[in-house]
Each structure stands twice: as C-alpha cells, then as structure tokens.
Amino acid sequence: MLVLSAPESIKRGAFAERRATAIANANWFRALAWRALRDGQPRGELRAANARFAARIVLRQAKRDAQVNKLVMEALADDPERRRA
Predict the structure, then answer these.
(1) What is the DSSP letter of 11?
(2) What CA–CA distance (Å, rounded) separates 18 from 48?
(3) How far apart are CA 15 and CA 17, in angstroms?
(4) For the segment 36-68, what is each residue's pLDDT rounded down to a tens digit?
(5) DSSP label at 7?
(6) What is the CA radius of gyration of the chain?
(7) pLDDT for the residue 11
(8) How many whole angstroms separate alpha carbon 20 and alpha carbon 15?
C-alpha cells in the first residue's frame, strides 16, 4: 500500500507531523474511492467502499494514537514524590 507523508515544511513537532500524515493518507484513500467509482472497472462500488473504510481506519488510528500519547505525557508529567506526601 502506498503511504503518503506530510510535506517537509511542517516542523511543528511529531504530533502535527503524524496528524498531517494521517489526513494525507485519508484524503488519498478518499480520492481512490472516487476513482474506483468512475473508472469503469468491475466491482467499483466494492472497491470504493473498501477505500472509504480504509480512510476511516486511518483516522481512527490517528485519534487513538493521540489519546495514548496524551495519557503517556500526563503519566510522565506526574511527580511520584508528590503522591507519597
């Protein structure tokens, strides 16, 4: 599977980079779905549905990664010495 990456001009951090990459990949899958419906090849509706589903998977995984990253950052920010007091 072809994976698109964000343009090199994005230098706002790892989170912004991952988000831009996920959006680019989702847009690519959506464009693939559009082409599948219009290219006249067999089973275009099925191929388009699969491409749209792949776009949803990409976005869902990006959201999950963001949530996990937030939890990890909060856990690392906690000071264990404060809990003992």
Answers:
(1) -
(2) 25
(3) 5
(4) 999 989 999 999 999 999 999 999 999 999 899
(5) -
(6) 19
(7) 59
(8) 9
CB 51 within 8 A of CB 73: no
How many Cβ atoms sit within 10 Å of the Cβ of residue 36? 19
What is the pLDDT confidence band of residue 83, given thresholds at 50, 70 and 90? Answer: low
For 15, the enclosing helix (H) or strand (E) is helix 14-38
Cα 53 to its chain centre, rounded Å, is 13
Using CA atoms, how far residue 82 sits from 60, 77, 79, in Å, is 35, 12, 6
Tokens read off for 56: 């949803």
Q: Is the pLDDT of residue 1 over 90?
A: no
